[in-house]
Amino acid sequence: MPFTLAPELHAQPTPFYHYDLGLLDATLTALQQAARPRNFQVHYALKANVNLPVLARIKDHGLGADCVSGGEVQRALEAGFAPEHVVFAGVGKSDAEIRLALAADIWCFNAESAEELAVLNELTGAQGRTARVALRVNPNVDAHTHAYITTGLEANKFGISLADLPAVVAQFSSWPHLELVGLHAHIGSQITDLNVFAELSQRLNELQTWLESQGHQLPHLNVGGGLGISYEQPDGQPIPDFEGYFSMFDRHLVRRPGQQVHVELGRAVVAQCGTLLSRVLYVKQSQSTRFAILDAGMTELMRPALYGSYHHIQNLSSTAPELLYDVVGPICESSDTFRKAVALPETRRGDLVAIRSAGAYGEVMSSGYNLREKVAAVYVGE
């Protein structure tokens, strides 16, 4: 069924974010039904959405927290995630962020370079303690996704290159305050070709065998996340193919006895439960284009301007015959365009418009550009 808005919310000032916690619960249930029988531990990637009501649901379903900033580590702890279920990743951790995570005694740091490992060792030693670390490798696996959200190629800034890995491992004895507990890889986001996860598994199998030859038996593997969703059909495919995702790793990844495998899913968990609601300010007709100008813009949903990404758009107020519109926002940038040539029922000033699949990398990326105020969030299905 197409997205519908409860009658009492039609008077809610726009723009606002609408979160369906019932759909979030159904998504988390399906996720754990696929993960738990295969003994996968799921960490939710906070960078997708950090709203506390959303995090509460995720924690209650037994997920850990994958963080990429000190602020996210702090938010995970505030939301009730146990420190032993918090992982801190990211290519540029500051000293202050590292100290914060050390003070909280989080489970693990995913380290991305020899330089970072040296700093981690120094800061940890200054506190007279030991930190658990996993080496994030750059496996040079093409995720076949948008260039801006690919993370596992040699050209990307993330992870330790395969060429540099032997030198990093050889240096480990010079970092006495670090305990190597795992191997980590993440190749990108919005991945819909599940076969790339088979390729990633094979690369990790080879790396594990090599690490064992160097005397390192690793109790943990982190295979990243990246599972995509259907932006084109949010109602037809509201829950991602978790079964296919986990079965791909289950079939191709060679686990050692007792080894724990972690995944870090974000978009696949929260994207479909979120919708951005906006009203039409003006319908403007130029010689060649009909514009539907909304009161929401790139300050509320950056993805189309940043990536040229697709979001399904619905007019909730009209059932008239369809016309083509460029759906744009009010921000003083030409890139403030949600989509061009969108077929919508004839649209008028005041119509309510829903921009779908906005629960991930939507509200969390919003800004105050043009001195815009942060919009409200409304939760249904509690």
UniProtKB/TrEMBL annotation:
Q: Which domain of life is it from?
A: Bacteria
A Pfam family of the record is: Orn_Arg_deC_N
> What cofactors does this protein use?
pyridoxal 5'-phosphate
Which residues are annotated with the PTM N6-(pyridoxal phosphate)lysine?
K47
Enzyme class, broadest EC rank: lyase
The UniProt record gives the binding positions of pyridoxal 5'-phosphate as G226, E264, L265, G266, R267, Y361
Task: Identify the residues that bind substrate.
Answer: R267, R303, Y307, E333, Y361
Q: Which GO terms describe its molecular function?
A: diaminopimelate decarboxylase activity
Annotated InterPro entries: Ala_racemase/Decarboxylase_C (IPR009006), DAP_deCOOHase_LysA (IPR002986), De-COase2_N (IPR022644), De-COase2_pyr-phos_BS (IPR022653), Orn/DAP/Arg_de-COase (IPR000183), PLP-binding_barrel (IPR029066)
Instruction: Supply the alphabetized keyword list.
Output: Amino-acid biosynthesis, Decarboxylase, Lyase, Lysine biosynthesis, Pyridoxal phosphate
- What EC number(s) are associated with this protein in UniProt? 4.1.1.20
Pathway assigned to this chain's UniProt record:
Amino-acid biosynthesis; L-lysine biosynthesis via DAP pathway; L-lysine from DL-2,6-diaminopimelate: step 1/1
Q: Which Gene3D superfamilies match?
A: Alanine racemase, Lyase, Ornithine Decarboxylase, Chain A, domain 1
Q: Which reaction does it catalyse?
A: meso-2,6-diaminopimelate + H(+) = L-lysine + CO2
Q: Which residues form the Orn/DAP/Arg decarboxylase 2 N-terminal domain?
A: 35-271
Query: What does the record note on quaternary structure?
Result: Homodimer.
Task: Name the family.
Answer: Belongs to the Orn/Lys/Arg decarboxylase class-II family. LysA subfamily.
Role this protein plays: Specifically catalyzes the decarboxylation of meso-diaminopimelate (meso-DAP) to L-lysine.
Q: What is this protein called in UniProt?
A: Diaminopimelate decarboxylase
Q: Which organism is it from?
A: Hymenobacter yonginensis
Q: What is the lineage of its organism?
A: Bacteria, Pseudomonadati, Bacteroidota, Cytophagia, Cytophagales
Provide the gene name from the record. Answer: lysA
